[in-house]
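INPUT
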Amino acid sequence: EAGVVQSPRYKIIEKKQPVAFWCNPISGHNTLYWYLQNLGQGPELLIRYENEEAVDDSQLPKDRFSAERLKGVDSTLKIQPAELGDSAVYLCASSLGGTQETQYFGPGTRLLVL
Amino acid sequence: GENVEQHPSTLSVQEGDSAVIKCTYSDSASNYFPWYKQELGKRPQLIIDIRSNVGEKKDQRIAVTLNKTAKHFSLHITETQPEDSAVYFCAASMGGGSYIPTFGRGTSLIVHP
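OUTPUT
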Protein backbone atom coordinates (compact mmCIF):
# COMPACT_ATOMS: atom_id res chain seq x y z
CA GLU A 1 0.00 0.00 0.00
CA ALA A 2 1.37 3.40 -0.92
CA GLY A 3 1.87 5.88 1.87
CA VAL A 4 0.96 9.55 1.89
CA VAL A 5 2.37 11.20 -1.20
CA GLN A 6 3.38 14.83 -1.39
CA SER A 7 4.76 16.96 -4.17
CA PRO A 8 6.90 18.75 -4.83
CA ARG A 9 9.53 17.60 -2.35
CA TYR A 10 11.45 20.86 -2.59
CA LYS A 11 10.48 24.32 -3.76
CA ILE A 12 12.49 27.52 -3.97
CA ILE A 13 10.65 30.73 -4.79
CA GLU A 14 11.11 34.43 -4.43
CA LYS A 15 9.04 36.35 -1.92
CA LYS A 16 5.68 37.56 -3.11
CA GLN A 17 5.38 34.64 -5.51
CA PRO A 18 2.59 32.07 -5.18
CA VAL A 19 3.27 28.42 -4.35
CA ALA A 20 1.13 25.31 -4.09
CA PHE A 21 1.64 21.96 -2.41
CA TRP A 22 -0.19 18.76 -3.21
CA CYS A 23 -1.05 15.81 -1.00
CA ASN A 24 -2.51 12.41 -1.81
CA PRO A 25 -3.52 10.61 1.38
CA ILE A 26 -3.64 6.88 1.98
CA SER A 27 -6.62 5.34 0.22
CA GLY A 28 -9.66 5.22 2.48
CA HIS A 29 -8.35 7.76 4.97
CA ASN A 30 -11.10 10.27 5.67
CA THR A 31 -9.08 12.69 7.79
CA LEU A 32 -6.34 14.81 6.29
CA TYR A 33 -4.04 17.24 8.08
CA TRP A 34 -1.69 19.95 6.90
CA TYR A 35 1.13 20.86 9.27
CA LEU A 36 3.92 23.40 9.21
CA GLN A 37 7.25 22.31 10.70
CA ASN A 38 9.96 24.85 11.38
CA LEU A 39 13.53 23.74 11.94
CA GLY A 40 13.95 22.32 15.43
CA GLN A 41 10.24 22.41 16.17
CA GLY A 42 7.37 19.98 16.25
CA PRO A 43 4.65 20.03 13.60
CA GLU A 44 2.02 22.74 14.01
CA LEU A 45 -1.46 22.16 12.66
CA LEU A 46 -2.63 24.44 9.87
CA ILE A 47 -5.87 22.75 8.85
CA ARG A 48 -7.73 19.46 9.32
CA TYR A 49 -10.24 17.96 6.91
CA GLU A 50 -12.91 15.37 7.54
CA ASN A 51 -13.64 14.18 4.02
CA GLU A 52 -14.07 17.40 2.04
CA GLU A 53 -14.99 19.57 5.03
CA ALA A 54 -12.43 21.76 6.79
CA VAL A 55 -13.29 21.13 10.45
CA ASP A 56 -10.41 23.00 12.04
CA ASP A 57 -8.64 25.85 10.27
CA SER A 58 -8.18 28.25 13.15
CA GLN A 59 -4.38 28.22 12.75
CA LEU A 60 -4.40 28.84 9.01
CA PRO A 61 -3.32 32.42 8.13
CA LYS A 62 -6.24 33.05 5.84
CA ASP A 63 -4.92 36.30 4.43
CA ARG A 64 -2.35 34.39 2.42
CA PHE A 65 -2.97 30.66 2.89
CA SER A 66 -5.78 28.64 1.37
CA ALA A 67 -6.52 24.96 1.14
CA GLU A 68 -8.96 22.69 -0.54
CA ARG A 69 -9.83 19.03 -0.59
CA LEU A 70 -12.13 18.51 -3.49
CA LYS A 71 -13.95 15.17 -3.54
CA GLY A 72 -12.53 14.38 -0.14
CA VAL A 73 -9.33 12.77 -1.43
CA ASP A 74 -6.37 14.86 -2.66
CA SER A 75 -5.66 18.20 -1.09
CA THR A 76 -3.86 21.34 -2.13
CA LEU A 77 -2.34 23.98 0.13
CA LYS A 78 -1.57 27.34 -1.42
CA ILE A 79 0.34 30.40 -0.27
CA GLN A 80 -0.11 33.68 -2.09
CA PRO A 81 1.95 35.76 -1.75
CA ALA A 82 4.77 33.90 0.00
CA GLU A 83 6.84 35.69 2.63
CA LEU A 84 10.35 34.98 3.89
CA GLY A 85 8.94 33.62 7.14
CA ASP A 86 7.01 30.93 5.27
CA SER A 87 10.22 28.97 4.72
CA ALA A 88 9.58 25.64 6.43
CA VAL A 89 8.60 22.05 5.80
CA TYR A 90 4.92 21.53 5.01
CA LEU A 91 3.75 18.11 6.12
CA CYS A 92 0.58 16.33 5.11
CA ALA A 93 -0.82 13.49 7.21
CA SER A 94 -3.85 11.28 6.99
CA SER A 95 -5.76 8.92 9.25
CA LEU A 96 -8.79 6.71 8.99
CA GLY A 97 -10.70 9.09 11.25
CA GLY A 98 -13.21 8.46 13.98
CA THR A 99 -11.57 6.52 16.80
CA GLN A 100 -8.61 5.60 14.58
CA GLU A 101 -6.25 8.44 15.38
CA THR A 102 -2.99 7.01 14.07
CA GLN A 103 -1.55 9.55 11.67
CA TYR A 104 0.58 8.65 8.70
CA PHE A 105 2.78 11.47 7.50
CA GLY A 106 3.96 12.28 4.02
CA PRO A 107 7.62 13.12 3.30
CA GLY A 108 6.88 16.84 3.36
CA THR A 109 7.59 19.73 1.02
CA ARG A 110 10.58 21.82 1.97
CA LEU A 111 9.91 25.44 1.00
CA LEU A 112 12.58 28.10 0.78
CA VAL A 113 11.45 31.67 0.17
CA LEU A 114 14.22 34.00 -0.98
CA GLY B 1 -5.60 25.14 24.18
CA GLU B 2 -3.17 22.34 24.91
CA ASN B 3 0.47 23.10 25.66
CA VAL B 4 3.12 20.36 25.53
CA GLU B 5 6.59 20.79 26.99
CA GLN B 6 9.29 18.28 26.06
CA HIS B 7 12.69 17.72 27.69
CA PRO B 8 15.53 17.44 27.06
CA SER B 9 15.99 19.10 23.68
CA THR B 10 19.14 17.04 23.08
CA LEU B 11 20.12 13.70 24.58
CA SER B 12 23.43 11.99 23.95
CA VAL B 13 23.98 8.39 25.13
CA GLN B 14 26.36 5.52 24.56
CA GLU B 15 25.17 2.48 22.68
CA GLY B 16 23.51 0.07 25.08
CA ASP B 17 22.49 2.76 27.57
CA SER B 18 18.89 3.71 28.28
CA ALA B 19 17.31 6.97 27.16
CA VAL B 20 14.37 8.76 28.74
CA ILE B 21 12.43 11.66 27.22
CA LYS B 22 9.79 13.47 29.25
CA CYS B 23 6.75 15.50 28.27
CA THR B 24 4.21 17.47 30.26
CA TYR B 25 0.83 18.64 29.06
CA SER B 26 -1.62 21.22 30.30
CA ASP B 27 -5.11 20.09 29.27
CA SER B 28 -6.51 17.49 31.65
CA ALA B 29 -9.02 16.50 28.94
CA SER B 30 -6.22 15.07 26.78
CA ASN B 31 -6.43 11.30 26.71
CA TYR B 32 -4.26 10.15 23.81
CA PHE B 33 -0.46 10.47 23.76
CA PRO B 34 1.52 9.30 20.72
CA TRP B 35 5.28 9.37 20.20
CA TYR B 36 6.86 9.92 16.80
CA LYS B 37 10.37 9.28 15.51
CA GLN B 38 11.71 11.49 12.74
CA GLU B 39 15.00 10.66 11.11
CA LEU B 40 16.88 13.42 9.36
CA GLY B 41 15.04 14.53 6.23
CA LYS B 42 12.34 11.91 6.65
CA ARG B 43 8.72 11.83 7.70
CA PRO B 44 7.60 11.47 11.34
CA GLN B 45 6.58 7.90 12.12
CA LEU B 46 4.49 6.69 15.04
CA ILE B 47 6.51 4.40 17.30
CA ILE B 48 4.21 3.95 20.28
CA ASP B 49 1.12 5.53 21.81
CA ILE B 50 -0.77 5.36 25.08
CA ARG B 51 -4.28 6.20 26.20
CA SER B 52 -5.29 7.67 29.52
CA ASN B 53 -6.81 4.46 30.83
CA VAL B 54 -3.38 2.80 30.80
CA GLY B 55 -0.38 3.68 32.94
CA GLU B 56 2.31 1.94 30.92
CA LYS B 57 2.78 0.32 27.54
CA LYS B 58 5.76 -1.59 26.19
CA ASP B 59 6.85 -2.67 22.74
CA GLN B 60 10.19 -4.47 22.73
CA ARG B 61 12.85 -1.90 23.68
CA ILE B 62 10.40 1.01 23.84
CA ALA B 63 8.03 1.83 26.67
CA VAL B 64 5.82 4.78 27.53
CA THR B 65 4.55 5.70 30.97
CA LEU B 66 1.74 8.09 31.79
CA ASN B 67 0.95 9.91 35.02
CA LYS B 68 -2.43 11.60 34.54
CA THR B 69 -2.43 13.20 37.96
CA ALA B 70 0.84 14.97 37.31
CA LYS B 71 0.05 15.38 33.59
CA HIS B 72 3.28 13.99 32.32
CA PHE B 73 4.34 11.06 30.18
CA SER B 74 7.71 9.63 29.26
CA LEU B 75 9.35 7.59 26.54
CA HIS B 76 11.88 4.98 27.63
CA ILE B 77 14.28 3.34 25.18
CA THR B 78 16.43 0.54 26.55
CA GLU B 79 19.59 -0.97 25.01
CA THR B 80 19.91 1.95 22.61
CA GLN B 81 21.40 1.36 19.19
CA PRO B 82 22.92 3.84 16.69
CA GLU B 83 19.83 3.46 14.50
CA ASP B 84 17.76 4.91 17.34
CA SER B 85 19.42 8.26 16.61
CA ALA B 86 16.66 10.62 15.47
CA VAL B 87 14.37 13.38 16.69
CA TYR B 88 11.55 12.15 18.89
CA PHE B 89 8.29 14.10 19.29
CA CYS B 90 5.61 13.61 21.89
CA ALA B 91 2.06 14.78 21.36
CA ALA B 92 -1.12 15.11 23.38
CA SER B 93 -4.73 15.31 22.31
CA MET B 94 -8.24 14.31 22.97
CA GLY B 95 -8.79 11.10 21.09
CA GLY B 96 -11.51 10.00 18.76
CA GLY B 97 -13.26 12.38 16.41
CA SER B 98 -11.60 15.46 17.86
CA TYR B 99 -8.04 14.28 17.36
CA ILE B 100 -5.92 17.39 16.93
CA PRO B 101 -2.52 16.66 18.45
CA THR B 102 -0.29 19.29 19.98
CA PHE B 103 3.34 18.35 19.52
CA GLY B 104 6.32 18.98 21.74
CA ARG B 105 9.39 20.71 20.33
CA GLY B 106 11.25 17.45 19.90
CA THR B 107 14.29 15.73 21.42
CA SER B 108 17.33 15.01 19.32
CA LEU B 109 18.66 11.62 20.47
CA ILE B 110 22.23 10.77 19.54
CA VAL B 111 23.44 7.25 20.23
CA HIS B 112 27.21 6.92 20.06
CA PRO B 113 28.56 3.54 18.95
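end of record. Chain A touches chain B at residues 3-4, 31, 40-45, 48, 56, 91, 95, 97-99, 101-108 (CB under 8 Å).
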